[in-house]
Structure formats: C-alpha cells, structure tokens
Amino acid sequence: MTEVKVHGTRLSDPPGAGVVWHCVVPRVLAIGVWTERSEGRGEDAPPLFTHLMPDGEGMLGVFDGLGGAGAGASCELPDGTRRSGAWVAARLVRAGVEEWFGDRSGARTPVRTPDSLREHLTGLLTGVPAPPRGKIVSRMRRWLPTTMAVSCYRLDGEEAECRTLWAGDSRAYALSPGRGLQALTRDHTEETDGLRQLTQDPPMTNMISADQEFVIDSHTLRLPLPCVLICATDGFFGYVETPAHFECHLLSTLQAAHDELDWAERLARLVSGYTGDDASLSLAALGYADFARLRTDFAGRALETGTRYRAAGDPTEPEWRSRAWDDYRPAYERLMPPLKEQPVKERM
C-alpha cells in the first residue's frame, strides 16, 4: 500500500491568496486551495487529501475552526505561540481524521464508521487541557470547536462508492456535466433552505468540540465514473449571490485553466477576492484520464451555468435570486440526505 504525496505551492500575488496543492495519479486528479483572511492566523485547517495505492481508495476533507464559538480561550503551542482554540481544533481534528482513515489495526479491510470516527476525535480533543472555566465566558462558547466535511471514496469498476461524513456547516458536493453541483450534506442548522442560509447565516445545531456532545453525520451513495468530489468551507460558498454561483466559479476557472495547478491558483485568487472569511477546498476528479478531458467534459455545463445564472443577476430586481434558486434547487438537492431531526438536544 502506497500513500500518494501532494505537492504544495504558496501564492504571493495577490497578498492573502494562500496556498494551493495538486496531485495526479492514475484515475485521480486532485487540487486543494487554502486562503487566510489574517495571514498566519487563519482558523481553517489546510485541506486534506490522501489516496492509497493500489487500493484505489482515498479521502478529501476540510475543517473550519469556529472563531466565534472558540474565541473565549486560547492555547500555547510548544514554540510559545498562542493560537485560538478554534485554530487548534481544526488542525487537531484534521490530523485525527487522517489517522482514523489510515489506521488498519491489523485488519485487511478497516471498519470506518461515523461512531468510530466520533470516538477517535473525542479522545483526541478531551486530551487537550481545558482553560479555567472563567475563560469560557458563556454557554455559547465551546472548547476546541470546529466543523468538518469529509468524503471517503473507493473506485469500483465504473462507479465510485462515496461516504460523506460531516459536522457543522462545511459541505461536500458531487459535480457532473449533466447535473452540475449537487450537495451531499445538509448543514447542521435550524434553517434548511440553501438561499436563506446565505442571507441569514443561521447558528449551528451541531459542531465538533471537546466540551459538548456532538454527532458525525453520514451519507453513502454510489456515483458513476467519471465524477468530481468537492469539500469546502463556507468561505467558498457562503459569500456568493446564490448556490449556483459557487458552481459558476468552479467551472469558469476550470475552463480558463491550462492544467490542474493553474485551476487551483485561479480558484485561490478568485475566492480571496470575494470571500469575507478563511476559505479552504479539497477536490478530487475521479475516473478522468487527464485534465484536458476534464475541462472538455464540463465546457458545455460551464457555458450553460454562466449564461443562466451568473449573467442573469439584476441587482435592481429583488426577486432574481429567488427565481435563480428555484430553478437551480431541484438538481442541487437531488443527492442530499433526507431531512431529519438533529440528535443534539442543546441548541447553540
């Protein structure tokens, strides 16, 4: 079994454009984007991507440390640097997820369940000494709070088996030429409408943290190959006009790029220009022979979405967002898990 290494590049233009990653192996092309609003203090962890050969399975993920929920306390790192609990949480959970995915414990086929991941992360988080209770100033504060969205995949003939695991409001998606961008997760918020989530920024009902119970939600499905999997924090999708506009950004930069690294760089520069938050994205195109085939496959969809949604916005007409969302919503929500009551009792 060989783990594939990912190559990273720091961008210097414009300032804050962040770091991008890229990786190409047989049947898998992957990119990652990571930007910070405050250099050196971004609370998103770097995006995660790993692929195991010759198993044909891998994982991608993102982790958004919740600065608001974790602003009441901080940690001192071994070098004396102080970082927020949210900064530490995102990186600790990222490391824990990667460890959980790679741990076979002597078994030929590892058992990767939401409960086993929750137990693993709980053990890691509760091992970090909490500050005095007075440092966490209200019940709204959490010790080591973060979101998570992870997609584990296994290439199986002409299909990919995909299991998505998440907590909070980071998201996982599938992207295809025929259906466009389709959400694979449901935000853990009381508001379930995708457009109102953009305009209201509703509070979360579930997040990973060290001092409160949390759940890891799960959704499994099989997708025909080729396909594209994406995980993103809200810095990417939370500052656009409608959910359709995130797809427009993905596809317009894809069509302008000449290879996977150029695509990642264009996405990084684009998101750093419109977001109001740290932003991270991990993307894996599965079953594609090369970047040229990927770009060609999405050329028609890019033209359609650009014309239908991005160019259709009229700021003088208040209803255009609702009409665009009504048109886009059926395909976008087709693969989402069903609505259900959140199992976490205490609202945050």
Describe what you observe in this structure.
With 348 residues, this protein is α+β, with helices and mostly antiparallel strands. The chain has a single domain (2-332), classed as PPM-type phosphatase domain (Phosphatase 2c, domain 1, 4-Layer Sandwich), CATH 3.60.40.10. The chain has helices at residues 85-102, 114-126, 194-200, 234-237, 243-256, 260-274, 291-297, 299-308, 320-332, and strands spanning 2-3, 7-10, 19-25, 28-35, 48-53, 57-62, 74-76, 82-84, 148-156, 159-167, 171-176, 180-183, 217-224, 227-232, 279-286. The protein has a seven-stranded antiparallel β-sheet with strand order 2-3-4-15-14-11-12. The termini are far apart.
List keywords for this structure.
348 residues; alpha+beta; Phosphatase 2c, domain 1; 9 helices; 29% helix; globular; disordered C terminus
Estimate the mean pLDDT confidence: 87
Following the backbone from N to C, one meets helices and strands in this order, namely EEEEEEEEHHEEEEHEEHHHEHHH
Termini gap: 42 Å
Count of distinct strands = 15
User: Architecture, according to CATH?
Assistant: 4-Layer Sandwich
- SS element count, helices: 9
Q: Report the major sheet.
A: 7 strands, antiparallel
- Percentage of residues in strands: 25-35%
CATH C-level label: Alpha Beta
Give me the side-by-side strand order of the main sheet: 2-3-4-15-14-11-12
Question: Would you summarize the structure shown here?
Answer:
The protein is of the alpha+beta class and 348 residues long. It has one domain (2-332): 4-Layer Sandwich (Phosphatase 2c, domain 1), CATH 3.60.40.10.
